[in-house]
């Protein structure tokens, strides 16, 4: 079953949760072949009912010890701009759409999401452009995200410190 | 009276000058450790070990740090992890990371130390200064007791008092500790506050985005390393 996983990390982002479960967005998701929607809503005040959507099968929870399994099962991940969530989704090789909370000012975490968007590793929108983005997005344009190379760091340090 | 004041002022100025010269000497002594090591190796059994003090912060910082630690060879031993006393998550992460290491090398040693946190998320700047001073009171005895070869840190506020304590070891001529800082991958355009404070005093300062390398000429850029 084609699944969308929505994650807001440890933040609250009610606007995204309300937007994604609206009839308009779920219809678009359905039209694109997604049948299941899993929501991790964090500290948000809005925890949708499982049977509140007619277009799509819906599951929602606040927190889990690990969201790795939900990420693995997802065909599309929709995330807040948090660095941890972005990196976890991209490292799993999943298509990622970041929805920016434009009501949060001075959020330094935006830096990373914006850069990864500039490098074509993820899609990027706000709640107001979410429907349009989902309707028109082309996931095949996304560039794969290569893992970082800690070995380069280790080699540099070995040389600098005269180890080996 | 004025004369006495001038003499006092002159003395103070001289003291500041001596300390500054000493600090700059310590900061430039980065390569001396390498010579020390070479010497130690030629007299020892042939294997070199580097004791590391690792500052593990919270959440994302700890994950990034453990990815770096995983890449280091068993020569980096013992490894002393310092975590904030209010941090519960990091200890579990460190232990599971070290367990997976242990299977490869049974000689490896690691320890976990706790100190008060310098700055909680969202804490005000003025009260941060006091809590940092408090953290320094715990950092100095710890660093002086462990006398690590290297301090490795990547951003949480706790890095600052620990690096200052390590610098103090050098200033007092007790030991030159190599300070290594790795800026978080989250920092693309601007350094974190900790990064800005530590940039002038670290021996090796790594950034993970080209934009930061261009802004900070002393930094080392090897692409993304976590």
Automatic annotation (TrEMBL), chain A:
Pfam families, sorted: Glyco_tran_28_C
Superkingdom of origin: Eukaryota
TM spans (from-to): none
Main location: endoplasmic reticulum
One MF annotation (Gene Ontology) recorded for this entry: N-acetylglucosaminyldiphosphodolichol N-acetylglucosaminyltransferase activity
EC number: 2.4.1.141
Top-rank EC class of the record's enzyme: transferase
Glycosyl transferase family 28 C-terminal domain sequence ranges: 3-150
Family: Belongs to the glycosyltransferase 28 family.
Keyword Transferase: yes
GO BP terms, alphabetized: dolichol-linked oligosaccharide biosynthetic process
Keywords: Endoplasmic reticulum, Glycosyltransferase, Transferase
Name assigned to this protein: UDP-N-acetylglucosamine transferase subunit ALG13
GO cellular component, one term: endoplasmic reticulum
UniProtKB/TrEMBL annotation, chain B:
Subcellular location field: Endoplasmic reticulum membrane
Entry keyword Oxidoreductase: no
Main location: endoplasmic reticulum
Domain of life: Eukaryota
InterPro entries: Oligosacch_biosynth_Alg14
Pfam families: Alg14 (PF08660)
Family to which the UniProt record says this protein belongs: Belongs to the ALG14 family.
Subunit field text: Forms with ALG13 the active heterodimeric UDP-N-acetylglucosamine transferase complex.
Protein name: UDP-N-acetylglucosamine transferase subunit ALG14
Provenance organism: Gouania willdenowi (Blunt-snouted clingfish)
């Amino acid at each position: 079953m084609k699944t969308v996983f929505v994650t807001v990390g440890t933040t609250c982002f009610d606007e995204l949760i309300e937007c994604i479960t609206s009839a308009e967005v779920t219809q678009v998701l359905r039209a694109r072949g997604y049948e299941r929607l899993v929501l991790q809503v964090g500290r948000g005040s809005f925890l949708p009912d499982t049977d509140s959507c007619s277009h799509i099968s819906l599951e929602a929870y606040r927190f889990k010890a690990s969201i790795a399994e939900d990420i693995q099962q997802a065909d599309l991940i929709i995330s807040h701009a948090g660095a941890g969530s972005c990196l976890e989704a991209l490292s799993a090789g999943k298509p990622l759409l970041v929805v920016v909370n434009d009501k949060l000012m001075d959020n330094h975490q935006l830096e990373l999401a914006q850069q990864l968007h500039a490098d074509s590793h993820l899609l990027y929108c706000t709640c107001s452009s979410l429907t349009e983005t989902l309707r028109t997005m082309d996931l095949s344009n996304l560039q794969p995200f290569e893992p970082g190379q800690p070995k380069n760091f280790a080699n540099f340090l070995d040389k600098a410190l005269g180890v080996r | 009276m004025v004369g006495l004041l001038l003499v006092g002022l002159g003395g103070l100025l001289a003291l500041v000058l001596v300390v500054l010269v000493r600090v700059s000497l310590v900061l430039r002594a980065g390569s001396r450790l390498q010579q020390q090591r070479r010497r130690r190796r030629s007299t020892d059994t042939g294997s070199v070990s580097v004791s590391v003090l690792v500052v593990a912060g919270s959440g994302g910082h700890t994950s990034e740090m453990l990815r770096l630690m995983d890449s280091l060879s068993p020569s980096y031993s013992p490894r002393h992890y310092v975590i904030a006393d209010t941090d519960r998550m990091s200890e579990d992460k460190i232990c599971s990371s070290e367990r997976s290491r242990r299977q490869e090398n049974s000689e490896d040693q690691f320890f976990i130390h706790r100190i008060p946190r310098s700055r909680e998320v969202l804490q005000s700047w003025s009260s941060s200064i006091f809590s940092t001073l408090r953290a320094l009171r715990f950092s100095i005895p710890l660093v002086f007791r462990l006398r690590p070869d290297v301090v490795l840190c990547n951003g949480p506020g706790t890095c600052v008092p620990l690096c200052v304590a390590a610098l103090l070891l050098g200033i007092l001529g007790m030991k030159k500790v190599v300070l290594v800082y790795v800026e978080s991958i989250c920092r693309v355009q601007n350094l974190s506050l900790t990064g800005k404070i530590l940039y002038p005093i670290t021996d090796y300062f790594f950034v993970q985005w080209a934009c930061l390398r261009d802004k900070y000429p002393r930094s080392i850029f090897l692409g993304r390393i976590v």
